[in-house]
Amino acid sequence: MQRALLLAALAEGGTSPNPLVGAVVLNASGALAGEGFHACAGEPHAEVGALAQAGEQAKGGTLVVTLEPCCHQGQTPPCTEAVLAAGISRVVIAMQDPDPRVAGAGMERLRDAGLEVITGVLEPQAAHQNRAFVHRVSTGRPWGILKWAMSLDGRTALTNGASQWISGPQARSWVHRLRARCDAVIVGGGTLRADDPLLTSRGQRHPEPLRVVLSRSIDLPVEAQLWDTAVARTLVAHGPEVSAAQDTQLPEGPELLALRASEPLDLLEALAQRGCNRVLWECGPGLAAAALQQGCVQELAVVVAPRLLGGMPARTPLADLGFTSMKQVLVLEPDSSEQLGTDWLLQMLLS
Amino acid sequence: MQRALLLAALAEGGTSPNPLVGAVVLNASGALAGEGFHACAGEPHAEVGALAQAGEQAKGGTLVVTLEPCCHQGQTPPCTEAVLAAGISRVVIAMQDPDPRVAGAGMERLRDAGLEVITGVLEPQAAHQNRAFVHRVSTGRPWGILKWAMSLDGRTALTNGASQWISGPQARSWVHRLRARCDAVIVGGGTLRADDPLLTSRGQRHPEPLRVVLSRSIDLPVEAQLWDTAVARTLVAHGPEVSAAQDTQLPEGPELLALRASEPLDLLEALAQRGCNRVLWECGPGLAAAALQQGCVQELAVVVAPRLLGGMPARTPLADLGFTSMKQVLVLEPDSSEQLGTDWLLQMLLS
Fold it and tell me: Which DSSP state fits B232?
């Protein structure tokens, strides 16, 4: 099962709306006979690939699979029939498929056909690996990751808005890899105007994640990196108050989508319908707070950079330090980091 | 020398205004004959203790010591004379004493007397261990540590000021241990009024660090935990505008100190004169920013707690989340933390 989970993980970010699935076939003597994973929606399921690789060796053998085999005709035929046709005697499953078209019926079909079915093996690990898919199937909304990079004093920009760069190149590369695991990357109109972001994985995902601008109006800049849809698709999701006449300002390329309301929840329902299992919020504070409040965030990824920016807020650790350029900010030298209970302690030296 | 550094560290927080010093004596055959460390100002120096323990075995032996032996009469006689009297042949030293009364003259005295003197052994480690002492001797100001605890969204309080507790019990215990390593703990009048803090090490340091309130005026609460000086001494450092007539409001106990100006730099010069090697800033954003800007901070200790508070500042990661009580704030489940270059990546799940 650990091998099957590793195989499943090879397609991370590539299978939506489908889950990640890995499968291993052992012959009747228990020797490895075949392996497979689900690479992409429309491609064969993991079980089918592993059984094909095993061929005659599957007879009387064991199929180990990270998710319950499907029993319905989708883009590909039901896997249960392939398992039966291959002559497998025993099926070991990590977890039940939450898809209501399966939901235990796959296991039932195999048991009814006389196969031994063992389930719940490494179930927590399998559930964690497919948490985005499970969340989308059970809530109708993709799993949301909210990401930000901030200085050690909790700033994402100077008071004049300057913010490039707070985090270092390794952290920015990590964000590209994070995008490669997501089906869509979401910003608001404010971030588009302020940062003119590219929002791609820099080629680490094919196709690139869908880039989404959530905006009340479509009063957006005429020129923006997001409007070049040769590199990646762009969706402008807007509220119902936008009239067709306003559309003219945006160039050809980005797709327009009218939501019932320009709210995170409405957007996520629309993205789930388009097959997104996991989305990344890379937005400013207003949209981030709204996404949190509407239950659209399940996971946080925060980069804390060893810099001090200062500024005057409600109450954060530092008042104004008078900086007007990112070149002026205090740069610190990391000394040590450790976890204290559920807190992190970050110690550093002034250079 | 590693053993000598470990011995020196036993007195961490207890030797000011003196440095940490550890010493080991090996006999003529190289076997361990004596150990010592400097425990407290006024007590014997490390070399003297180690030599006394070695007794006759010191003859023809080696003294290993983390700091150059002193050659001047202070509260105790010069160590160089004790080394010579013991018949030591070789002295191994980590680093030169930056105290202008020594500064190489101790080594010179030993060399002039015919002893072999080796220096620079584990010098970086020794300099790091005594960085507070070295900083105070070379700048005339104690080493400053600025500490704060904040939520993952960079908040130290809700917009209504509520802040107890952002960090967990392990982090708060760590702060008590940090105080035990410091000679003074500094807050401003605002923190005193808002939090009525105790500022002790909870008995982990004897005596407790000096508790300092830096305030322009002495218009401070009549009742405060800091005014009970049975548990620890308290110093109220104020600006020159305070007249003697105003003093009456404060109870007996806390000492008053008039500074040229109620600024971090003026306070630290006064604390250095009182023998403080290391001070801890536990103040609010205004005083913290001033301390940073005046070069009064050499080290930062930041606790990041897995909570989200929200609020509307210059620009921090989250806008207002509408919380009015610490019981409402979003509590996160830490998933993983790692260093990316010089940044920290903290990943966590919404519960």
Answer: S
